[in-house]
Amino acid sequence: MGRKRAVGGIEIPKWAWLVPCALVPVVLLNLGVAWLGGTQVSPLSFSFLQTKARALGAYVAHRPECVLDGHPPLEPLIEDTERRHGIPPGLLKALIQVESETRVHRISPAGAMGPGQLMPDTAALMRVEDPFDPAPSVDASGRYLAEQLRRFRDVRLAVAAYNAGPGSVNGRVPHNGETEFYVAKVLAAYEHTRPKAPVVVKRPAVSATPVKAVAVKAPVARKARPPDASVKPAAAPKRTAPVKPASRPAAGSKPAAKLASATR
To answer: Which residues does 82 contact at the CB level (< 8 Å), separation at least 6?
Structure first.
């Protein structure tokens, strides 16, 4: 029977003291991934412990190389990788935006590393020694995505295979609670990163039959005809003198007939 140690009047078995000692490395590992990798992970997460440990080891080996020099911009590397591997323009850029938000030192809660979030086994398969080095990491992500595009000949299925692995894609996007949402996010980002189609301005169609020009004659000013000599001008109407009204007899004078009869 194991020994017991009393704490506050409560007897605790000796083996129970080993539990905190076992939890400390797990907590430290998860805190290191969250802090150095810029991600969110529970301190008591027991998932992907081995891959997270390998990712932290790769980060510690890489970090001294970029303390002083830093890293070049990712966008020219992404565009060059798309051209070299025949990836539709903007697709790899959208995928990296969803994977790591274009952060070079990103570590996922599952232990994926770098801008393209390569798992340790995938990085080894693609012969990438330092997944946090942007040039080989972006190139490996481009090669892996181009391989899935050639295999499935479909953008949705290729993006799903990048996330869940080609073995999980059987003619459709797997519904595992993660990949279906991942594909939707990449395709939504792809709508913004793909080149915009040029705007074509349609011109009115030109008729094949030639149009005859119609000459418009200017109006000709007519000359005024000279007056004919044989035509006499009309005589001006004669003016008549106005008729004066008869004058009235002066007041007090008598008519002449009455004056004559008076003299007889």
So the answer is: 88, 89, 90, 91, 92, 93, 142
Q: Are residues 47 and 93 in the same domain?
A: no
Question: Could you tell me the CA-to-CA distances from 40 to 33, 45, 78, 102, 108 in Å, in that order?
Answer: 8, 11, 26, 17, 8
- The Cα 150–Cα 155 span in angstroms is 10
Please give the model's pTM, rounded to 2 decimal places.
0.68
Residues across the chain: 264
222-250: burial string, b at 16+ Cβ within 10 Å, e else: eeeeeeeeeeeeeeeeeeeeeeeeeeeee
Residues 133 and 161 in one domain: yes
Is residue 21 domain-shared with residue 94, that is, in the same domain? no
CB 116 within 8 A of CB 140: yes
Note the pLDDT tens digit of each residue in 139-185: 999 999 999 999 999 999 999 999 999 999 988 999 999 999 999 99
Question: Looking at the domain assignment, is residue 226 inside a domain?
Answer: no
Please indicate, yes or no, whether residues 101 and 30 belong to a single structural domain of this protein.
Answer: no
User: Exactly one of 99, 101, 147, 180 is catalytic; which is it?
Assistant: 99
CB 172 within 8 A of CB 161: no
**Is residue 177 a part of any domain in this protein?**
yes
137 and 164, same domain (yes or no): yes
- Answer yes or no: 99 catalytic: yes
Note the pLDDT tens digit of each residue in 201-244. 667 666 556 556 555 565 555 655 655 555 555 555 555 555 55
Residues 50 and 82 in one domain: no
**pLDDT tens, position by position, 81-129:** 999 999 999 999 999 999 999 999 999 999 999 999 999 999 999 999 9
